[in-house]
Amino acid sequence: MTAYAIARIGPADGPLHEEVLRYMERIQGTFAPYGGRFLVHFEQHELLEGDWHGAPVLVAFPDMDRARAWYKSPEYQEILPLRTRHLPGDIILVEGVPENYDATATAAQVRDAQA
User: Fold this and answer.
1) What is the bridge-based pairing of β-strands 37-41 and 55-61?
2) Is 29 in a helix, a strand, or coil?
3) How many CB atoms lie within 10 A of CB 35?
4) Distance (Å, whole) CA 112 – CA 100
5) How far is CA 23 from CA 29, 89, 94, in A?
6) Cis bond upstream, residue 11 (ω within 30)
7) Which residues form the DUF1330 domain (predicted)?
8) pLDDT digits (tens, 9 = 90+) for 44-98
9) How does 9-29 read in b/e, with b if 16+ C-beta sit within 10 Å?
10) Which of 63, 83, 96, 99 could join 2 via S-S bond, C-beta 3.0 to 4.6 A?
11) Phi first, then psi: what are they for 5, rounded to 5°?
12) Radius of gyration of the chain from its Cα atoms, rounded to whole angstroms
């Protein structure tokens, strides 16, 4: 099942630091062994609800094991401080739903569990 790394990065206080730019130049190369690919990367976004500051990032991986392995990999851990020293962020890994997913079934399961 496809897994996703979802991040909110920043905002930056002024121009991006040179280390952050080096991180951006190198991150894509860390995906290859794990089958990862950017779906969204620092794109403009429209806030509809809530309080979202920073840039959205969405990376797809073939499965959760490979997503975890990418994040823990020596290659990614080596470049991670280039960003974290200068930009705050929130990152989660989440497994996607199957193609035939139906939210009504999930609602029924939650309703039953709460009864």
Assistant:
1) antiparallel
2) helix
3) 14
4) 21
5) 10, 14, 23
6) yes
7) 2-97
8) 889 999 998 999 999 999 999 999 999 999 999 999 999 999 999 999 999 999 9
9) bbeeeeeebebbeebbeebee
10) 96
11) -100, 120
12) 17
pTM of the model: 0.90
Structure tokens at 1: 């099942």
**CA pair distance 61, 35, nearest whole angstrom:** 6
Number of domains into which the chain is organized? 1
Tokens encoding 21: 């730019």
Residue pair 96/36 in contact by the 8 Å Cβ criterion: no
Place of tokens 């029924």: 108
Q: Tokens 């951006």 appear where?
A: 24
Question: What's phi and psi for 23, nearest 5 deg?
Answer: -55, -45
Choose among 56, 26, 19: nearest CA to 40: 56
3-state secondary structure (DSSP) of residue 10 = coil
The CATH number of the domain holding residue 68 is: 3.30.70.100
